[in-house]
Specification:
The structure holds two protein chains of two kinds. Chain A contains 15 helices and two strands. By secondary structure, chain A is mostly helical. Chain A folds into two domains: about 80 residues, no CATH class; about 270 residues, no CATH class. A two-stranded antiparallel sheet of chain A has the order 1-2. In chain A, helix 4 packs antiparallel against helix 6 and helix 10 runs antiparallel to helix 15. Classes of the chains: A mainly alpha, B alpha+beta. At the A-B interface, helix 2 of A face helix 1 of B. The structure holds iron/sulfur cluster (SF4) (2 copies). One iron/sulfur cluster binds next to helix 4 of chain B.
């Protein structure tokens, strides 16, 4: 069976056969970059459509249903519309910063994709501190948000940006601690090693209580970090008319929008890599036949299946829960999630020490 | 002790209420039959449903003898906050030789109307009511000026 890694190996060999080393390396970088951009844009379009369609059904509506069959072309039409619109910069805005903010936030989103293993052997940069890298890079997006809010010279944008800053900085903590629980169990920070450590079963099953608690906390924190409802008070349409991207229009707004969905996508990928085994098929130790059947489903299908499951959960949250107030939001983090995740980390360490996970 | 109990109670109660909410929306997701949206221009004249009590426009019901119940008292005209009603009356002489005020024209400016229903409440003889007709769009302004009493209509004689 041809796997995806065979194809990449073949491209790699071809390039190095016909070109000299440096040029081939450069060509590989460009190819990888194009692949990442294509993946992110395709995912964003699919997610926007899925989000709107699911939103409709969750709220007893139809969702988009006029452009194309079942409204499938709606997201593409919106993208084209955003690209054709004029980018307006407000008169008193800090112009360089205003223009830089959407670029920074998009670049950050793309950078964080580097260490993910999409299937066996498909990884852009298999570094030994992959988890650390992803958490560090994805928390940089708050700089883009703050820049955008500050440079717009608009009180609503600034308030939205500050709220978003407070929120992301606090929820990083519990997200980090719940990720640390899994790092303790698998004993590695490389995303590839964490996936390989789940060959006999995903951490959420093998790590039982601490892994489940960590998973729940991680999902909550990811929703908050992606600035999604019920934690979307950085946008807060009713109070802030749109939050940090109030003043943006056209392609700059589209970049913010893309970055929001990229963050969501990355956090979903991180969660499945840590808790649901990434591209690893569902294995039950002992059942060899079952495991072999599961192996026939390619890793990329497992990977995207699980990612879409997490994304579906996030969409479900968004269209069910009302927005939280800022003080309640911080109370939830500092009084509930953080103490629980610290205790949970100790608990996970204890269980690993005693060898009580499966 | 109590505060510790409350702390954990809050957590589990919170999860329970979130779960209830998610089950509600999840139920809607898997039951597309429950969708409330009416695909308006498509279902026009077929499955379109407008609630009976919807305030669409003021109409004056006439019975089969072309008789209405308006006594031209102009209470509706006075109660209208927007001045969208003009009740034009005239004096006629009845066969018995009595002078009587009857309705000549009940003019309704629908473009000024906010569909508040005050005129219907004010009318002592129940001569007007709200219909649920809502497709009022028009290219010309004349369409918004309506005369509600039909030509040649008379006041219904009082039921004995
Ligand atoms: S519904 Fe209200 S605004 Fe319209 S005619 Fe009657 S009183 Fe006037
Ligand atoms: S519609 Fe009613 S309130 Fe208005 S003039 Fe006629 S009887 Fe009087």
């Amino acid at each position: 069976m041809i796997s995806l890694s065979d194809i990449t190996q073949w491209i790699h060999k071809m390039l190095f056969q016909y070109l000299n080393g440096t040029v081939a390396y450069g060509a590989e970088l460009v190819l990888a970059g194009v692949a990442v951009i294509a993946l992110v844009v395709a995912m964003a379009i699919i997610m926007v459509y899925a989000e709107r369609k699911f939103a409709g059904f969750f709220q007893m509506r139809w969702g988009p249903n006029r452009v194309g069959k079942w409204g499938t072309l709606q997201a593409i039409a919106d993208t084209v519309k955003l690209m054709l619109k004029e980018c307006i910069t407000p008169n008193n805005a800090d112009k360089p910063m205003f223009k830089l903010a959407p670029i920074i936030i998009t670049v950050v989103g793309f950078l964080a994709l580097a260490p993910f293993a999409f299937a066996k052997g498909i990884v852009l940069w298999d570094m030994n501190i992959g988890v650390f890298y992803v958490t560090a890079i994805s928390s940089l997006s708050v700089i883009g948000i703050l820049m955008g809010g500050w440079a717009s010279n608009n009180k609503y944008s600034l308030l939205g940006a500050l709220r978003s800053g407070a929120q992301i900085v606090s929820y990083e903590l519990s997200a980090g601690l719940s990720i640390a629980a899994i790092i303790v169990m698998s004993g590695s920070m490389s995303l590839n090693d964490i996936i390989l450590a789940q060959t006999d079963g995903w951490w959420i099953l093998r790590g039982h209580i601490p892994a489940i608690i960590a998973f729940v906390i991680s999902i909550i924190a990811s929703t908050a970090e992606a600035n999604r409802s019920p934690f979307d008070l950085a946008e807060g349409e009713q109070e802030l008319t749109g939050g940090y991207h109030t003043e943006y229009s056209g392609i700059q707004f589209a970049l913010f929008f893309l970055a929001e969905y990229t963050t969501m996508f990355i956090l979903a990928m991180l969660n499945i890599t840590l808790f649901l085994g990434g591209w690893m098929p569902f294995h039950i130790p002992g059942l060899t036949v079952f495991n072999h059947i599961m192996d026939f489903i390619p890793g990329i299908v497992w990977f995207f299946g699980k990612t879409f499951f997490i994304l579906f959960l996030m969409i479900w949250f968004r269209w069910t829960f009302p927005r939280m107030r800022i003080d309640k939001l911080l109370k939830l983090e500092w009084k509930y999630l953080l103490p629980i995740s610290i205790v949970n980390l100790l608990f996970a360490a204890f269980i690993t020490l005693m060898g009580w996970h499966f | 002790m109590r505060s510790i109990y409350k702390y954990f109670y809050d957590i589990f109660h919170g999860f329970y209420s979130l779960w209830t909410g998610m089950m509600t929306t999840g139920y809607y997701l898997v039951h597309p039959k429950k969708i409330l949206t009416q695909e308006y221009p498509d279902n026009r004249g077929t499955t379109l449903y407008i609630a009976e009590r919807f305030h669409g426009e003021v109409v004056m019901p006439h019975d089969e003898n072309n008789e209405h119940r308006c006594t031209a008292c102009s209470l509706c005209q006075m109660s209208c906050p927007n001045g969208s009603i003009e009740v034009k009356s005239e004096m006629i002489e009845t066969p018995e030789g009595k002078k009587k005020k009857v309705l000549k024209q009940w003019i309704y400016h629908i473009d000024l109307c906010t569909f508040c229903g005050s005129c219907i409440d004010a009318c002592p003889s129940d001569a007007i009511r709200m219909s649920n007709e809502f497709e009022h769009a028009s290219y010309t302004k004349d369409a918004f000026l309506k005369v509600l009493n039909k030509p040649g209509s008379k006041l219904k004689s009082k039921e004995k």
